[in-house]
From TrEMBL:
Record lineage: Bacteria, Pseudomonadati, Pseudomonadota, Gammaproteobacteria, Pseudomonadales
Superkingdom of source: Bacteria
Enzyme class per UniProt: oxidoreductase
Transmembrane regions listed in the UniProt entry: none
Pfam families assigned: 2-oxogl_dehyd_N (PF16078), E1_dh (PF00676), OxoGdeHyase_C (PF16870), Transket_pyr (PF02779)
Family: Belongs to the alpha-ketoglutarate dehydrogenase family.
Enzyme Commission numbers on file: 1.2.4.2
SMART domains: Transket_pyr
Any one annotated GO CC term: oxoglutarate dehydrogenase complex
Cofactor(s) demanded: thiamine diphosphate
Descriptive protein name: 2-oxoglutarate dehydrogenase E1 component
Protein function: E1 component of the 2-oxoglutarate dehydrogenase (OGDH) complex which catalyzes the decarboxylation of 2-oxoglutarate, the first step in the conversion of 2-oxoglutarate to succinyl-CoA and CO(2).
Length: 947
């Protein structure tokens, strides 16, 4: 309205008579409560200090009322007062145009700012930053106008002074984008911080000398590595050295806010420089990696994927720094660090994000091009994933590998435009102006603390070399690299500036470079704030979980009376709780299960597992798109009152701290959410962290997280993780996107005891499986092919005694009494839901010489347990592996060698054969009739006579 309707009223002279009275009424409402009037009018009144300043002695309310009445008699709406003097209509017109000009600079000044160190950035002409657009001209330069809400410590100034101030503030080395923010308080806060400076931060000389020292360190490391290891990949920071003083200031300033931990994620560019010059990694250790002298305990990873942690001293005390490990999948680390930060905040009960903050460092091409960035932004203000705001830094090289044309790289003006979706302020800054970089760094962190939301610093720099040190960039960007070759470094330019201002001398500059290179040569730490003996209490203690070997059997029993007490407690609901009819039936049935009147079904067994885990002092966190209720309405861990819609979570009644049990229906994301939960699990060893897919098939969208973190993180980076993935899996005739969690993909990734892959088939099994995941000190990701139809299958239930006294069985042998061991001639091996299809068909055919053995865990494959189970059938002559997945999917290709090993050890003359669907390009049949035909066909293969 402010830029459209009001502008129309001004330009057409329609604000007269009753309209003036309308404005007067709006103003009365504004005085009573600014929130009562439309934001556009509120913003306008705020811009007019002589009207908006309700405490002003110069202008009374009565004078304002009279003023608005006078406006109704003029051809233009010109709200300008000056000590009872009503100036002429032309001046009033121009006064409003000046206010428009100020607004234009705030909105679009960044498009004129000198952001590019190379001066190659394409900048369109911005018409509304020119005087004639606003019906002003150089002839008005000496005319005095009110400055409105422009914070330059003057109520009036000449047009020339106003324009000069606006140019200095909004078109210098910093481009501010914040007028897209809806919240007026946030916009005004930024204006009050940046406008009085007039584009000149005015730092003390000691701060400027520290900036030079940090730039010298950043450049010094790159030059040292280039001379010592020429042509070796390092993804250097040359051209973006201002990143080092930027992050240094973030950490030191965060410390002054009382921050205790900072978690950082970044891709390759500048990572080695950050590790040495910010986190304090010993240069000697880095050189050993370059020279291949590092000691490897596992597969390891390249230097520019490695993480690190250390403690540094700040004005507010000791701060723990953690740089996350991450692969070449660029932005995927962004949600991982958010999860790690949230875990640390939960541990500290830091719900506002005061004590732990995330810093996410991006590349410009990746920030614009990777969808996980959007997902991570979308998470930032949600209950489950909020961290109180992230400081995002974009190392904007203005080129993505070889793509530099804007119409190839993105469809927006800036790479940062995706951040506008959460109304994050965006500060573009020329990296060759270190003082401007320092100013926006302070501004960004202060904004994050003031408003608890994300903020973006776009560090516009360049890449002095190619994508890596072996790449020749001039073949694809010839003009850019002609310019770069002639350009002095950021450090050299800033040193010249300080020398010219007599803040330092050439000898002092030379000494900075020499002393830094000397420290590198001697292998000394180069971070002066590094704490050599850090406070170990600031580290996550993984010691209890180290050094354990895999064991398939772990005692997960619980005293029956304890289990009964837990069951009774969580089924005793408040009297006033009004539940939906079907949910009430579930609650009533669970009360009967707790009393031993009904067998325990899957949903209640799972709930009891969580209850028992909570009472051992372990946290439980569950997220996914439908986890509160459960996609298949089996869980109902969150109950909603039908009259008030308030939530009641029975499991929280077991613990004094309700934060011990967290369950959230997540946003519609798999990739970012799963990465977040991975980060959370790697930071919280004593918790059951569960992500449940709506359907297991949808884990496809998070495959990079599975491949690069969950299954390989321990062996690449020595990062333990106890994350549990519940992936609904089972062929019910629902087509290729609602059947398969792609079991074969997980099994293909299995090696070196990296993960656990389980297919539980009873409620007792899920109870013990979940307890084992937390109570056993071994920390491995648990992948569960969880059921759908089995959730309500009558034969999957168990008694409370079976839950209390048992343990997770990796192999379950034959359970039908009519199948006698010495009569068995054929053994069918299977996993998951297909067991119940096989058993039902066997009963229908009245077969008593075929035994069915369930493999409840496919990895680590339980060869010993399978051998012991098969030994019970000394007369078997035929062994069948039966699966419901197509032959090229499921467990057949990945697990048959394990089964053959067992068979050969018992009866070398018996071969293993396959019964299941034929190989298929799709995961499952989409036609129910075809699904049933395939089911009947492979049941016949498994159970029928063999000629």
């Amino acid at each position: 309205m402010h830029d459209s309707i009001m502008e129309l009223m001004w330009s057409t002279g329609h604000l007269s008579g009753g309209n003036a009275e309308y404005v007067e009424q709006l103003y009365d409402q504004y005085l009573a409560d600014p929130e009562l009037i439309p934001e556009e009018w509120r913003s306008y009144f705020d811009q007019l200090p002589t009207i908006a300043d309700k405490s002003s002695d110069d202008v009374s309310h009565r004078e304002i009322q009279a003023y608005f009445r006078r406006l109704g008699k003029t051809s233009r709406f010109m709200p300008v007062l000056s000590n009872d003097v009503v100036v002429n209509s032309e001046h009033e017109n121009k006064q409003v145009q000046v206010l428009h000009l100020i607004s234009s600079y705030r909105v679009r000044g960044h498009q004129k700012a000198a952001l590019d160190p190379l001066s190659l950035m394409h900048r369109e002409r911005v018409p509304d930053l020119e005087l004639d657009f606003h019906n002003l001209s150089p002839a008005d330069h000496s005319t005095i106008f009110q400055t409105g809400s422009l914070h330059i410590n003057r109520d009036t100034a000449s047009l020339r002074e106003i324009v000069d101030a606006l140019e200095s503030i909004y078109c210098g080395s910093i481009g501010y984008e914040f007028m897209h923010i809806v919240d007026l308080a946030q916009k005004q806060w930024i204006q009050k911080r940046i406008e009085p400076k007039l584009g000149n931060p005015g730092f003390p000389n000691e701060v400027k000398r520290h900036l030079l020292e940090r730039l010298s360190a950043a450049e010094g490391l790159e030059k040292h590595l280039d001379s010592k290891y020429p042509g070796t990949k390092r993804f250097g920071l040359e051209g973006g050295e201002s990143l080092i003083p930027l992050v240094d200031e973030l950490i030191q300033r965060a410390g002054s806010y009382g921050v205790k931990e900072v978690v950082m994620g970044m891709a390759h560019r500048g990572r080695l420089n950050m590790l040495v010059n910010i986190l304090g990694k010993n240069p000697a250790d880095l050189f050993s990696e370059f020279e291949g002298r590092a000691k490897y305990k596992s597969s390891g990873d390249v230097k520019y994927h490695q993480g690190f942690s250390s403690n540094v001293m700040t004005p507010g005390g000791e701060v723990h720094l953690a740089m996350a490990f991450n692969p070449s999948h660029l932005e995927i680390v962004s949600p991982v660090i958010e999860g790690s930060v949230r875990a640390r905040q939960d541990r500290r009960k830091d719900s506002l994000g005061h004590a732990v903050i995330p810093i996410s460092i991006h590349g410009d091409a990746a920030f614009a091009g990777q969808g996980v960035v959007m997902e991570t932004f979308q998470m930032s203000k949600t209950r489950a994933y909020g961290t109180g705001g992230t400081v995002h830094i974009i190392v904007n090289n203005q080129v993505g590998f070889t793509t530099s044309r804007q119409d190839d790289a993105r469809s927006t003006e800036y790479c940062t435009d995706v951040a506008k979706m959460v109304q994050a302020p965006i500060f573009h800054v020329n990296a060759d102006d270190p003082e401007a970089v320092l100013f926006v760094t302070q501004l960004a962190l202060d904004f994050r603390y003031e408003f608890k939301k994300d903020v973006v610093i776009d560090l516009v720099c360049y890449r002095r070399r190619g994508h890596n040190e072996t790449d020749e960039p001039s073949s694809t960007q010839p003009l850019m690299y002609q310019k770069i070759r002639k350009l002095q470094t950021t450090r050299a330019l800033y040193a010249e500036k300080l020398i010219a201002a007599k803040i330092t001398t050439e000898d002092e500059v030379s000494e900075l470079n020499t002393s830094y290179r000397s420290a590198l040569d001697t292998g000394s730490h180069v971070v002066k704030s590094l704490i050599k003996e850090p406070n170990v209490e600031m580290f996550v203690d993984w010691n209890p979980y180290l050094g354990h070997t895999w064991t398939p059997h772990f005692n997960t029993s619980i005293k029956l009376e304890s289990l009964e007490a837990l069951a009774k407690k969580i089924t005793s609901l408040p009297d006033k709780l009004s539940l939906q009819r079907q949910v009430q039936k579930i609650a009533d049935d669970r009360a009967k299960m707790a009393a031993g009147e009904l067998p325990v079904d899957w949903g209640f067994a799972e709930t009891l597992a969580y209850a028992s885990i909570l009472t051992t002092g372990n946290r439980v966190r569950i997220t996914g798109q439908d986890v509160g209720r459960g996609t298949f309405s089996h869980r109902h861990a969150v109950l909603r009152d039908q009259k008030t819609e308030e939530e009641y979570v029975p499991l929280r009644s077991l613990v004094a701290d309700p934060g011990m049990f967290c369950i959230y229906d997540s946003l519609l994301s798999e990739e970012a959410v799963l990465a977040f939960e991975y980060g959370y699990a790697t930071t919280t060893p004593n918790a059951l962290v569960v992500w449940e897919a709506q359907f297991g098939d949808f884990a496809n969208s998070a495959q990079v997280v599975i491949d690069q973190f969950i299954t390989s993180g321990e062996h690449k980076w020595q990062r333990l993780c106890g994350l549990t993935m519940l992936l609904p899996h089972g062929y019910e005739g629902q087509g290729p996107e609602h059947s398969s969690a792609r079991l074969e993909r997980f099994l293909q990734l299995c090696a070196e005891h990296n993960i656990q892959v389980c297919l539980p088939t009873t409620s007792a099994q899920v109870f013990h499986m979940l307890r084992r995941q937390v109570l056993c000190p071994l920390r491995k990701p648990l992948i569960v092919m969880s059921p759908k139809s089995l959730l309500r299958h009558k034969e999957t239930t168990a008694t409370l005694e079976e839950l209390a006294n048992g343990s997770f069985q990796v192999v379950i042998g034959e359970t039908d009494e009519n199948v006698q061991a010495d009569k068995v001639e054929r053994i069918i091996l299977c996993s998951g839901k297909v067991y119940y299809d096989l058993r039902a068909e066997r009963r229908k055919r009245e077969i008593d010489n075929i035994a069915i053995i369930r493999l409840e865990q496919l990895y680590p494959f339980p060869e010993d347990d399978l051998r012991k189970t098969m030994e019970q059938y000394p007369n078997f002559k035929d062994v069948v592996w039966c699966q419901e997945e197509p032959m090229n999917q499921g467990a057949w290709y990945s697990s048959q060698h394990h089964m053959r090993n067992v068979i050969q050890s018992l009866n070398a003359g018996v071969n293993l054969r396959y019964a299941g669907r034929e190989a298929s390009a799709a995961a499952a049949a989409g036609y129910p009739e075809l699904h049933l035909q395939q089911l009947n066909a492979f049941l016949e293969q498994a159970l029928g006579n063999q000629d």
